[in-house]
Amino acid sequence: MEDAQITPGNGPAAAGNQPGTPTPAGRGPVSAPPPGPGPKPNAAAHLPPAPDVPAPPAGTEPGGRTSIAEQAVAKVAAIAARAVPGVHSLGTGAGRTLGAVRDAVAGSDTTATAGVNVEVGETEAAVDITLVADYGIPLTGLADSVRSAVYSAVEDLVGLNVVEVNVSVADVHVPEALDPRTVKRQPGTVQD
After folding, report:
1. What span, in angstroms and rounded, lies between the C-alpha atoms of 13 and 27?
2. Sign of torsion over alpha carbons 32, 34, 40, 45
3. pTM for the full model?
4. Predicted confidence pLDDT, tens digits, the chain (192 residues)
5. How far is it, in rounded angstroms, from Cα 22 to Cα 12?
6. 3-state SS string over the chain?
């Protein structure tokens, strides 16, 4: 049975709060107020601290073994890398074209992980990212941001210890407005 909190004016002994006692407006008996929105107790605060238990040897986890495919880790890493501002795309131009052709023929989805290569062990992962950066973004800072995002995403979402994230900047995407090859020439002008 739950412990009831009684405060002056709202307990069972308060005037008008006796079951069967009409309310001042004559609307019938007063019952206990419904639980209202209020601060909810922190359930974790009532739990004992977790014991410092060493991890069981590989392959002997209780209830079975968890296996995470390289494709799953690669997708998590690719999504994390694409979310970093300044990353134009993943992979190289030729690799993206080849991946698009392969996807059309085979019906697989390799473009989701284009530019991402992973090696997955029992508890660790290594990730290689190849990307195209947007023009105007400091490349070493971008590489550091991508590395940090991939570390966090793979460790938090997949649960593997990331031993390294190698970032290769394969190219820089230049917007059409800045690309000298796309400058429109005026008709009838002679170029030197």
Report:
1. 19
2. positive
3. 0.55
4. 444 454 455 544 444 445 554 545 555 555 554 554 444 444 444 545 656 766 666 766 578 888 899 999 999 999 999 999 999 999 986 544 444 445 455 555 556 888 999 999 989 999 999 999 999 999 999 999 999 999 999 999 999 999 999 999 999 998 877 666 655 555 665 555
5. 14
6. CCCCCCCCCCCCCCCCCCCCCECCCCCCECCCCCCCCCCCCCHHHHCCCCCCCCCCCCCCCCCCCCCCCHHHHHHHHHHHHHCCCCEEEECCHHHHHHHHHHHHHHCCCCHHHCCEEEEECCCEEEEEEEEEEECCCCHHHHHHHHHHHHHHHHHHHHCCEEEEEEEEEEEEECCCCCCHHHCCCCCCCCCC
